[in-house]
């Protein structure tokens, strides 16, 4: 081989070696970059276990004792208080015929829904019925939808406290049965005024519904 040709092949060999080395370096760089990218992806979404906070073992669950019934835990004071009359004794029935009371149970009981406060057990008179009708409250006409039979003179009925007071001021207040008049009446009228119109107690008899077994 001539010296010129040998020199040419030597240069060609050096160029080939240089190109091969550069290619290997580029492949390594790409591989390193790919590995880094893969590592960064894992570090963002799947952190190594050493980076996670240590988990605490949850204590074993213990079986809780059975809870007492709710009704047994309620204090006795939660029971409704017995209604009392203006004399401080147990409220007695006002009338069963006609069946009176806001709850139509024969008693002058009341609660917050009773806006008229039907708490005064009175024996109505013709004068009072006429006066009440003149004030826009007709107590003589039956209203079956409200279980109201219509009153006649001599009937006993749980009157609105303010209606009785209005009749008192007009001089036509009917007589009352103190034993059957709810103590709530004292929020509107004086006990002295009620006593001044008190009637001797007359038992209204047995509740016919209770006697027939229709009332608990």
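Q: What amino acid sequence fits the structure above?
A:
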């Amino acid at each position: 081989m001539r010296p010129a040709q040998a020199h040419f092949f030597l240069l060609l060999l050096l160029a080939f070696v240089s190109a091969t080395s550069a290619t290997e370096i580029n492949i390594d760089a790409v591989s390193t970059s790919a590995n880094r990218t893969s590592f960064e992806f894992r570090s963002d979404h799947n952190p190594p276990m050493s980076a996670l906070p240590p988990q605490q073992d949850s204590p074993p669950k213990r079986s809780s004792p059975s809870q007492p019934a709710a009704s047994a835990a309620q204090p006795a004071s939660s029971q409704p208080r017995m209604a009392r009359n203006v004399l401080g004794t147990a409220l007695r029935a006002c009338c069963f015929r006609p069946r009176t009371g806001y709850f139509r149970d024969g008693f002058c009981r009341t609660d917050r829904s009773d806006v008229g406060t039907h708490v005064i057990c009175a024996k109505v008179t013709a004068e009072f019925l006429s006066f009440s009708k003149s004030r826009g409250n007709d107590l003589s006409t039956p209203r079956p939808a409200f279980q109201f039979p219509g009153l006649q003179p001599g009937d006993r009925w749980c009157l609105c406290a303010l209606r009785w007071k209005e009749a008192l001021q007009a001089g036509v207040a009917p007589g009352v049965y103190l034993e059957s008049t709810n103590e709530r009446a004292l929020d509107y009228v004086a006990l002295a005024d009620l006593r001044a119109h008190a009637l001797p107690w007359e038992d209204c008899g047995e509740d016919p519904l209770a006697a027939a077994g229709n009332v608990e």
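Q: And what stands out in the fold?
A: Residues 178 and 195 are 8 Å apart (CA to CA).
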